[in-house]
Every structure is written in C-alpha cells, then in structure tokens.
Write a structure and sequence with these properties.
single chain, alpha+beta, Beta-Lactamase, eight-stranded mixed β-sheet, eight-stranded mixed beta barrel, 33 strands, EAL domain-containing protein, transmembrane, Rev_trsase/Diguanyl_cyclase
C-alpha cells in the first residue's frame, strides 16, 4: 500500500466502534442495577470496608519500612566511629593531612584503604544495595556559588542483591567509584560505569544531595552530632549509571569538630520494591506503593513507585498529584528524623494507591449475586457484545495472520486496518523490525570486539528461522562455512561434522567442551546451550586460557608451596573421600602423624632459611621412600600427615614405615660452620580398622601417640596404645555422669566483669560455666569426657542456651545493665544445628547484638572448620573473641583464621608484664595490629596495680582479672582499687 493510499483510509478508534452499540444495553442494565443494589446502600458500605483494609495495609507496611530504614539502613554510627578513629591515627602519623585530603585520590588512598573493610562490612550487615564514602574538607557552598565544582575522592560499592548469601571472595560486589590503587588492593571487580573519583568538574553533575546537604549541615552547625545531620537524599542516578536510588548519609566528623566527608548507603528502586510489594494493595496487582517527599501543596516529589500507577511520572522526575477520580490513596508519614534537626521539615510519606475499579471489584461481585433478576438483560448484552467484538476482531485477526507470514529477518511492511490504535501498532512493528535488524548487526560487532573469541546462534524451529553470528564456524576453524547461506538442516548437518572434537560435558552448567586442532597445539571451546520446546540458543567461547589457569590454581590450592606436598585441606579431602566413597579400597591402613624435631632450634640459631631447608629435606625423604599411592601432606610448619592404605596386613605397612624412617634418618643438612644436622622426627601411628574406622578418631589417636613419643623417647614413630590412652584418661569412664549433666543441664554460671580501660565502666561480663555435679571438678573434666564420647556438640548447645538464660535473667533482675555484652566460651570446631540456631534466634532475638563468643583452645581449628562454623552461625550475628592469645593453638595462625572482633591477651603474658620487656613488646605489637584493623584488646588475668597501669599504658581497651573484679554468681561491679588506678592513669 502506497503512502497516498494510507492517508485516504478513514481512521476510527476501537473505542468508538464498540461504545455506540453497547450504550443501549448499558442504559438498561444501569436502571436495573440502581433499583436492585444501590438503593440498599450495600455497595457504599463494601467500598468503605475495602478502603479501610487498604489503610491498614499502608499503615502496617509503613511501620515495617520505617523499622527497616531506622533499625538497619540508617545504622551507620558504628562504622563512622571506626573510620573517624582511623582518620585520627592517620592524621597523627602524618600519612594524611586535612589540607590535602580531598585534593585527589593519591592523598586519600591511605584513609580509603583503612575505611574499605568497615564500609564493606557495614554494607553486608545493613543489607543495602550500596555504600559510599566521599571526602571533602572545604565549604561546598562556595563551590556552588562560584560555579566551580570540584572532583572528590572516595569509594562507592554496589551490591545488586543484598539479601543473597555473600560471596566468600566478594564476587557479588561491584566498585562504582574508587582509586585504581584501592581497586587493586580490594580485588573486587569494577562496574561498567566505574570512575576513580566522583567526577563533578567535567561531567556537569552537580554535587549530590547526599554529599552536599549532610556535609553543609555539619559544617555550618558544629553543635549538631553526626546522627543529627543524617539525611535521606532525593532520588538520584549515580553519574554514568542508570539505577534510580535514594541514599542516607551522615557527615564524618573528627573529635575536634572538623568535617571531612560523608558516609552513606543507597537503596536502589529495584531493591526497595521488595519492601513495598504492590500486590498487597490490590489483588489484581494494579495497586501501587509510592515512597516520596510530600510537599506543602500535597503533591509528591522524588517518588519511587512499585506498581503501574504514576510510574512514568516518577521516572521523569515529575511531581505526582493523586487523581482521586481514578485512584483511592492513603498516606502514612515515616518518622525518619528527630525534631529540631536540620532536615526534620522534610516529610517522607508512604502512599498506597489503588484503582477505584479494583476497590469496587468485590462490590461488583456482590452486585452480580444480587442481580439475578437482570440475567436476561445481561445475556442480551453479552450476545450484543460478542457480535460487535467479532466485527472489530476480524481486521485484527487478518493483521495477525499477515504478521505471522512475514520473514522477521527482512524489513516488514503491513496493511492498514482502518482502526486508529491498531494502525499505530503496525507502524510500531514496522519500526521495531528495522530496530531488530540493526540490533542484530550491532550485537555481532560487539561479539567481534570481545577480549575472548565468542560466537552464537539461535534456532526457532516453530518459525523455521536460523540466526548465527558471522564468525560462528570460523571459531571452529572452518571460516569458509560462514559465507554460505544455510537452512536449519544445513546448520545441523555442518555442526555434526565437529562431533569428533567433543571431549567433555558439564551436566550442571549444561555446557560442552570441544578440543580443536590449531597448528601444533589445540584450542578449547565451550558451548553453552539453552533449549525450549521450539527454540535453541547457543554461545561458543574460547576457554583455552581459562582452562590452563584453572589447572595452575588447582595445584596452588592443594599443595604446600615449600614442599610441593598436599596441604591440610587437600589431605583431608583425599582421605575423607576414601572413607566416605571408596571404603572398600582401604583394607588395612595407617594414619601417621609426624612432627620434626629440632626445627625450632635451627630457626632460632641459624634462621628460617635453614629451617626451610630442614623441612625440604624431610619432604624429599617422604617423596623418595614412600610408595606412589601414599597420601602425604604438610599440615603446618613442622607437622606432616601420611596415610597408607590398600594393604593386606599391618606388617606390610610397618615395612613401608621402617623404610621411610631409614630414609628420613639418612637425610643430613649442612649448617653454617660445616655442622652436619641429621633430620629427626617423632611420630605416632593409628591403625585402620584395629584402632578405629573413623578418620577423625584416627587423627586424634595418631596425635596422642605422637605426643607420647615427643614427651618420652623422641626420634621414634610408634603405634597408638589404647590401654595407655584410657589409663591416662580415667574420667572417660564416667560417661553416665556426663549424660546426666547434659539431660539435667546441671551447670550454673559465674559472671566476671570486663571493664573499659579508659572509663572504668563495666562493658561486658564473661559467663564462666561451673558444673553442679561432684564427679566433675572443672569444665575441663566435662570437655574431656564429652570429646571422647562425641558429645562436644551437646555441650556447645547447652553452653549457648544456659549462658544466655542466666544472662537475660540477670538483666531482668536489674543486676546487669541492659546494654552490657556477654562473653562465653565456644568450642571452635562445633556449631549449633540449624534447628537449634533458629530456636536460639527466636528466643533471644533482642539480645543477639550483645553476644560475643570466645573461641577456646580446647580443640584445634583450621580454615575449613572455621568456615563451617561461621556459615552455620550467620543468622546469630554474634561477635567473636579470641581467648588466651599467646598460648596453645591461639597464636597468629588462629588470629588470621578467625579474624576476631576482640583479642584476649593470655594471663601468662599479663602477669608480671611491668617487669618484662618481652611481654610488653608482645602486647604492644598486638595492640597496634588490632587497632589498625578496628579490633579491641582485652587484658586477661590482671591481678596487681602495676600490671593494670602497664597494660593501660600500652593501649589495651578492656581489663579483666581479680584486681578488677572476681567472678560471682550475682554479678558485681568494678572494685574501688581498680577504679582508682584507672582514674589515676587518666591524669
């Protein structure tokens, strides 16, 4: 049809074609409805009830959203204080200056580096979509007046799904703003709109409200606190990014009142919609929630909408005036600001808007029930409507058929129907056809520009259509096939020619690996497919480099870099796989735990380089003198594990062990001065299945056997002696007493104060378990029997519930302050079951933020065990304290593994610290280490005035010990003598 013909077609809307014939029928129906229904007032009453329900929903949703915003999203003070502390230290050390802090990223990197970890932790804890810091030290209003906006350094992190479980390597986080040096340090991917700074000077972007308003409020009003100047910003798009969001930010202020930036979070519109589901406003999903600022004239500005109503106005930034003729709306004010603060006049409201049609829907259903008398009339109306609808539907149906017959790969031109709205749609389809063709060409060009080789295809079998990128067969090494026009059958036949290149299928990822010859070598391609009933999509990627890198990473993950033997994780994985999946291969086996003798002497006397050579010599002996099937690993500095399996008798294994021992003894290291040092080791053997069929028990028995050797003969490798083990653990015989203690929960708790070293205020209480059965003299007796009986998990669960029951009881009795923390001991490799965790969280939810779990040294812990414990305890949101730092297993390895919030320096270090320069050096080191990372130090076992003064002088944060207060079953405060000492140290 020509353009001239199109203009001669007389256009009529579908609305007019249907309206005129239906008017007569509608008039008759209205007369009957008014007489039978509206005269009784039923409809009005039903509509009022529907409106009241909407009002209640809005009020309830407002309370929920307000609690989330205040209780979680606005909880920035703790992080701000951590950042302020870091800033004070950096200013004091000269690493940064207030004069240059906002001059550029290079000046700001030291502070941003310190703030990155607390900022990331805050974003995780507050469950927000973004978190940021923007640094500025001058008056922003001067820049605005002069029209000379300046770029600002800072960091902006974004999490698209805060409710999902966090990635271990922060792969769910993107960096929107951060200096390059910080991006490299954090190891987090950048977003496509990433910028190393907040660009205001060249971008034309004005200072964001969440920077300008809270900063200026604090800058111009020094008397206000950070929280008083907290501000919920207007809706914004981060420059270069398309997401609409609101932000809450507070100024960063130093102790002298200096303001040097803002700290904040953002909530994107997509994430906010999860908290204001429009489906609850109207059953049909036509309602909408609107979060906005209410103006004096009643209009809504800066609106975030979830629902069909007013979405377009909100996205265009227009003010919204609710049309009462179409919608019923009810608003509730969110109390986000304290009175008499800079932004208390800004009124955020949550408005629920429902179409009047949806509100009256139920009433209409009642009308239908009451209108039995008008059935005949309705039937007439339906018949008439059907005939008219058919008349209108006919041209639409013809148009639909025409569209189906068109080739979508070519430009589409359609005939006119004479219906205005339908003809507008056909014009849009014609334009869309051109856009699709253009988009396909652009997509092919984008694929060609990718850093790795990509190609793709789509098959629509229902429409008999094929689309593929121009380089699809070229990536398989057959470029000539890309120049041939193909049908679906031709494509299938050609692709089957590469079948012999197929090497592997990944069922989980639904992908296929192909090995393509390429000159002297080969390339690896990964094909991902998605199939539906009528369609098939495929993407091919050259993964040669990533597969090679994966193999290197797997080797580095599983092997000790010094000896090239398995590491602890790989050893446990390999042996546990044997026990769990290939137990028939074990037959007779032996677990050997070996500890090198004299390593500490060599390290201390000749240095760690010779210590490493000593370890390598031992590893060489294991490699040369053990059979190929032996699983050998370096577990820690001087500890090795060996697992021999698949033998018919212990005698055969003993022969292998003797050969290995002879080879180990033959190894000699030449030390400085031509001193010859033989490699010597002590070890223990646990036999499978004689000693146990459990891998964990064999580990314990081998460890015990090694311990006995190292404390007696040394230099030997001896088998586990179960009789000796039982004789040394007589308490194990008292199993029934342990069962009664667990069933009756026969324990009570004494509480010892932990006080602030600066103020003397009681900060927390440590709950100390005391068994109430005469069979047990101490908690260690209970743990020893529970460990042997495999009931450590029951002790762990009893500890959590009984300690909290006693703690909460004292709070309710007024003997412990409501804001005090509770410290109690936990076994590192034990954790609550999911059911127990949920029960505990439900019972003590309001106190979860006051729990600090102390990890004791009674059981070993490694990274794998700690990851498992941390995962199971995620819902409890508890803090972690490392107990007895400086003794036993709780050394630097333990410190790095668990990264605690509090570090308790062992009593052995605190006792006599004022008389020992070595002890003072240890405490000084750990204080500096902790304070740089936002952690706190507790000095345990403080027993004298001199010790108290010394640890305070060294900078510990909290004190615990008999000089401060003794444990009591009725909690007490700090002793006067300790309070006097703290007051004296202030001066």
């Amino acid at each position: 049809m020509t353009e001239k013909q199109k203009k001669t077609v007389k256009k009529k809307s579908i609305f007019k074609k249907i309206l005129i014939p239906l008017m007569g029928l509608l008039i008759l129906e209205i007369l009957i409805l008014v007489c039978s229904v509206f005269g009784q007032g039923i409809i009005t009453e039903l509509n009022n009830n529907e409106k009241a329900i909407i009002n209640e929903k809005v009020e309830s949703r407002k309370n929920y959203l307000e609690n989330e915003m205040i209780g979680s999203w606005m909880n920035l003070t703790y992080t701000a204080e951590l950042i302020n502390d870091s800033t004070e230290k950096l200013l004091k050390s000269g690493a940064i200056t207030m004069q240059t802090l906002d001059n550029g990223s290079d000046y700001a990197v030291p502070l941003l580096s310190e703030a990155a970890e607390p900022l990331l932790a805050m974003m995780r804890t507050n469950h927000v979509t973004g978190a940021f810091i923007i640094l500025n030290t001058g008056d922003l209003s001067v820049d605005k007046i002069n029209g000379q906006l300046k770029d600002k350094p800072g960091i902006y992190l974004r999490d698209s799904n805060p409710q999902a479980q966090p990635s271990y390597r922060n792969q769910d986080i993107l960096i929107e703003r951060a200096p390059i040096a910080l991006v490299r340090q954090m190891g987090i991917a950048t977003d496509t709109a990433w910028n190393p700074k907040f660009d205001f000077q060249d971008s034309g972007q004005s200072y964001y409200d969440f920077l300008y308003k809270p900063f200026q409020a604090a800058y111009e009003n020094p008397e206000y606190s950070m929280e008083d100047c907290g501000y919920w910003s207007h809706v914004f798009n981060l420059f270069g990014e398309g997401k609409r969001a609101i932000a809450y930010s507070i100024p960063l202020k130093l102790s002298d009142g200096s303001v040097y930036g803002v700290l904040g979070i953002d909530i994107t519109q997509d994430y906010l919609r999860e908290f204001i589901p429009n489906e609850e406003i109207a059953d049909s999903g036509t309602g909408a929630y609107i979060l906005a600022l209410e103006q004096e004239d009643g209009t809504l500005s800066d609106a975030l909408v979830n629902g069909a109503a007013y979405t377009k106005e909100a996205e265009e930034g227009k003010k919204i005036k609710i049309d009462s003729s179409q919608y019923y709306a009810y608003s509730e004010t969110l109390n986000l600001y304290n009175s008499n603060t800079p932004f208390s006049d800004e009124k955020w409201v949550l408005t629920g808007a429902a179409p009047l049609d949806s509100i009256m829907d139920f009433a209409k259903k009642v009308e239908l029930a009451l209108m039995a008398a008008v059935t005949v009339t309705i039937i007439i109306g339906l018949l008439g409507s059907f005939l008219i609808s058919y008349k209108v539907q006919k041209p639409v149906s013809d148009l639909s058929k025409e569209i189906r017959e068109k080739d979508p790969t070519k430009r589409i031109q359609l005939c006119q129907t004479g219906i205005e709205e339908i003809d507008q749609m056909t014009q849009a389809i014609e334009k869309l056809s051109l856009d699709v063709i253009d988009s396909g060409q652009k997509f092919t060009k984008i694929i060609e520009m990718a850093s790795v080789r990509l190609a793709g295809f789509q098959i629509d079998r229902a429409e008999r259509q094929l689309f593929k990128t121009e380089n699809f067969f070229d990536i398989f090494g057959c470029p000539e096939a890309d120049g041939i026009e193909m049908s679906i059958e031709d494509f299938d036949a050609k692709f089957k020619e590469f079948k012999h290149y197929f090497v592997e299928k990944d069922e989980l990822a639904d992908s296929y690996i192909y090995k393509i010859p390429d000159g002297r070598g080969s390339r690896f391609l990964k094909l991902k497919c998605r199939m539906t009933e009528d369609s098939c999509y495929g993407l091919v990627e050259d993964v040669t480099q990533s597969l090679l890198e994966k193999k290197v990473l797997q080797h580095e993950r599983d092997h000790d870099p010094l000896t090239n033997l398995f590491n602890r994780r790989a050893f446990r994985r390999e042996v546990q796989e044997l026990f769990e999946e290939r137990q028939e291969e074990l037959k007779t086996a032996a677990l050997i735990m070996i500890d090198l003798d004299n390593l500490k002497y060599i390290n201390d006397t000749y240095g760690h380089d010779y210590g490493d050579k000593y370890i390598i010599k031992a590893a060489l002996a294991f490699r040369y003198y053990l059979p190929a099937g032996a699983i050998t690993a370096r577990i820690s500095g001087d500890e090795f594990n060996i697992f021999l399996y698949g033998y018919d008798s212990e005698k055969e294994i003993q022969t292998v062990i003797d050969t290995m021992k002879m080879g180990l003894d033959s190894m000699v290291l030449t030390l400085p001065g031509d001193i010859l040092q033989k490699v010597q080791a002590s070890g223990g053997i646990a036999w499978y299945p004689k000693d146990s069929t459990s891998f964990e028990v064999l580990l314990k028995y081998a460890d015990y056997a090694m311990y006995m050797v190292k404390n007696s003969t040394k230099g030997e490798i001896l088998s586990f002696d179960k009789e000796h083990y039982l004789s040394k653990n007589s308490l194990i015989q008292n199993k029934e007493a342990l069962t009664r203690l667990i069933e009756r929960r026969a324990v009570k708790y004494a509480f010892q104060p932990i006080v602030d070293a600066r103020t003397g205020k009681v900060f927390a209480y440590e709950a100390l378990m005391r068994p109430e059965m005469e069979e047990f003299k101490s908690v260690l007796d209970v743990l020893e029997i529970a460990r042997y009986e495999g009931k450590l998990n029951q002790i762990e669960e009893m500890t959590w519930f009984e300690a909290m029951r006693a703690f909460v009881g004292h709070i309710k009795a007024g003997t412990i302050a409501e804001d005090a923390y509770i410290f109690f001991n936990s076994i590192p490799n034990q954790y609550l079951s999911m059911q127990a965790e949920r029960t505990f969280a439900d019972e003590y939810r309001e106190y979860l933020g006051q729990i600090v779990v102390e990890l004791t040294e009674e059981e070993r812990i490694d990274r794998e065990a700690w990851d498992e414990k941390r995962t199971h305890g995620r819902e409890l949101r508890r803090k972690i304290a490392l107990d007895d730092y400086g003794s036993g297993y709780n050394s630097e390895k333990m410190l790095i593994t668990i990264s605690p919030d509090y570090i308790k320096v062992d009593i052995a270090i605190v006792n006599g610290i004022h008389q020992s320069s070595d002890k003072r050096a240890i405490v000084e080191y750990i204080v500096n280490y902790a304070h740089e990372r936002g952690k706190f130090i507790i000095a345990e076992g403080v027993e004298t005035e001199e010790e108290t003064e010394e640890v305070i002088r060294l900078g510990v944060d909290y004190l615990q010990g008999y000089y401060v207060a003794k444990p009591t079953f009725t909690p007490a405060g700090i002793l006067p003598q300790a309070l006097e000492t703290i007051e004296k140290m202030k001066n």
